[in-house]
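Throughout this review, each integer encodes one residue's backbone shape. One record appears below.

===
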Amino acid sequence: MITNAVLVCTKCPHDANSDLRLTLILKGGVADTTAQLITSFRMKAARNSPDKDDFLAIEIHELDQKTPWPPGEIVPISDKAPPPFDFERLTRFMAYPFIMGPVQFKWFGFLSKAFPMPATGGGWSAPLKRMACDQLIFSPLGMLMLVLE
């Protein structure tokens, strides 16, 4: 949510909302595509070379041999090929910032009006109030939206 907040605060004009949404959609899409590709490569590497003889290589499956993770926790165990690319998941990760970007824009605008920053040396009072209000009110709602999506 912090990166979304930074992007929301940098684009203030209302006519630039479409640029903001496009930026947020692309950020979500790139992040999820990267995560799915990493999972696919890790699954392929775990299946193809469980007993590699390279002493410089650090394999993920060697890191948890003393305390193994529960089955399917990190990488789903399967003898099949890596899972196919999940477009539904990609769509969900792109829809969340599309919906929440404008909401966050309005929220941070409200926080700016509710807790204005003094012109000179205002101290920590206003930023701390903004942070507390954001973390106590908006963050739980944002997480609920992410879970419900």
The chain is about 65% helix and 0% strand. Confidence is low (pLDDT under 50) at residues 1-14.
